[in-house]
Beta-ketoacyl-[acyl-carrier-protein] synthase III (Candidatus Anaerobutyricum stercoripullorum), 319 residues
Amino acid sequence: MFVKIAGTGSVLPERVVDNFEIARMVDTSDEWIQTRTGIRTRHIAGKETVASMAAEAAKRAIEDAGISPEEIDLIIVSTVSAEQSLPCVACEVQKEIGAVRAAAFDLNSACSGFITGYQMAAGQMKAGLAKTALVIGSECLSNYVDWSDRGTCILFGDGAGAAILRADGAPEELEIPSVLHADGSKGDSLTCSLGHGKDKVPYDEYYRMDGRAIFKFAVRKVPEVIREVLSLSGHSVEEIDYFVLHQANRRIIEAIAKRLRQDEARFPMNIMDNGNISSACIPMLLDDMNRKGLLKPGMKLVLAGFGAGLTWGGFYLEW
Ligand code: UT7
């Protein structure tokens, strides 16, 4: 018995920014961005916030699952880009959707955040502490993008994705084929400071990234973690219908498919339209697939993410 996803939802800000608009801000081109990343457009928040998008994605997931908000025991929001540190976004979502029974907290493991949230919720279910959980990835990365840095501003976008998780069986029968890893010694590859230190000296509040280092790390570690997940679930790579991966760069996903010697068609992507939205990517892509009718009962999926920290991880999911 596994933890199942009973419903999904997602939301994007209204404003679309194409590569030509970015090329008017920094020395780059539509051709360079598309060739190196696969990205054509991204959505950038205007009035939308991390909390407002999280709540909207949550409402759509609740509707898709056909449950009432009072049934939710736990809300976990993954974000690296909230507008405020208190209250946490998960509590704002709890208030907005009326999930009056739910415990709520935020987590930060960057682009691996949805994978981490899934494992935390599944662990609570296995311990008998929750039956229904809402896990959300919501990001307004544009809050922390330096629009004069062509190494990062071409890549990031805003949006939110949510999933309702339910235990498909008694707690003691639950299997959780899920793996999380971290390597803090490589944390300098992607950083962002917040506000002021005790000395009131302003920190650099923008994302700073060694893109090449993260690219290499992802291409090496994601196939490894997929194999780890499969050894836990007892499946071969060939048995998996879809690999739902963090949408950081089309070339990273293509390289992972190649390393696993699998057809790229089983690695769905929405990076072309949305860019890299950190922890929102995976639940948003899952919601796209769900709404397009690509996911049929019994289908076998592996979801995997990687990002700042550095962190990486994955889990096996049966639809
Ligand atoms: O979500 C998890 C965290 N982030 C990631 O996963 C990001 C992973 N990394 C990447 O996606 C890629 O490394 C980038 C898209 C960020 C960069 O692509 P790249 O192919 O690794 O380019 P590069 O950094 O090796 O730079 C190649 C060249 C350099 O010029 P020289 O030194 O060869 O003359 C750069 O200065 O491209 C130049 N360059 C650009 N040119 C036009 C870098 N950024 C741009 C740009 N437009 N935006």
About this structure: The CA atoms of residues 297 and 319 lie 5 Å apart. The longest helix spans residues 211-233. The longest strand covers residues 158-167.
